[in-house]
Design brief:
About 20% of the residues lie in helices and about 30% in strands. It has about 220 residues and is of the alpha+beta class. The strands form two sheets. Strands 1, 2, 3, 4, 5, 6, 7, 8 and 9 form a nine-stranded mixed sheet that branches. Strands 10-11 form a two-stranded antiparallel ribbon. The longest helix is centred in the C-terminal third of the chain and has 14 residues, at about 195-210.
């Protein structure tokens, strides 16, 4: 399934258009979507849940759109070596959660805020490590210059959106976390292991934009 940029823009009109305020992000006891979605009977940490945002950068390549990911540096204290979207915790100087996603993207990979066209927002995702994340979907035209931060980023790579939106590539894996069995989505691609929260957000993207057509 090849996805054109024009078709993608049309489909993304279904996304939420207004950014959540931080108080709206944090108002419920638990987000509806998160690591707990596939593990409804497991306990999740309830204390110190922090607001955060990530950017899902969709690169408008001529052949077909791709999604840009980072592989985090192995020496990091948290989530070392994992594949993720650019993003991080809300800072006091951030005007809103979009500003958080754009600031972190520039710091991590060098894509400037002016190079990102905000397309909309996915459902809030809560992680088992205590973050409540707003996924921001943005279009990026080719021609940008990457400048990865070596303190945080080991590699930057792109994956065709058609691969990520193919449900045959949405694997369900099982692992042990804090001594408990946990199930999660994984989408391995070209030697990179996309899993956990990142894969969960991609699954949400698929369910919001493509699943109805696939099951029709």
């Amino acid at each position: 399934m090849t996805i054109s940029a024009q078709e993608l823009r049309s489909r993304l009109a279904q996304l939420k258009r207004n950014v959540l305020r931080v108080d709206e992000l944090m108002e419920n006891e638990r987000a509806k979507l998160g690591d707990h979605t596939l593990n409804p009977h497991s306990s999740m940490p309830r204390e110190a849940v922090e607001p955060a945002a990530v950017l899902m950068p969709i690169i408008l390549r001529e052949d077909e759109p791709t999604v840009l990911f980072t592989k985090r540096a192995d020496h990091l204290t948290r989530h070392a070596g994992q594949v993720s979207f650019p993003g991080g915790r809300l800072h006091v100087e951030d005007a809103d959660l979009v500003a958080t996603a754009l600031r972190e993207t520039e710091e991590e990979v060098g894509i400037r805020p002016m190079e990102v066209e905000i397309a909309g927002f996915l459902d809030v995702y809560e992680t088992g490590t205590g973050y409540r994340i707003l996924p921001v979907v943005g279009f990026v035209k080719p021609g940008f210059a990457l400048a990865p931060d070596p303190r945080e980023v080991e590699a930057i790579f792109e994956v065709p959106l058609s691969f990520l939106m193919n449900p045959d590539n949405h694997q369900r894996h099982v692992g042990i976390w804090s001594g408990r069995r946990r199930e999660y989505y994984a989408m391995p691609y070209a030697g990179y292991y996309i899993w956990g929260a990142t894969a969960g957000m991609l699954r949400n993207f698929y369910e919001r934009i493509y699943a109805q057509e696939m099951t029709a």
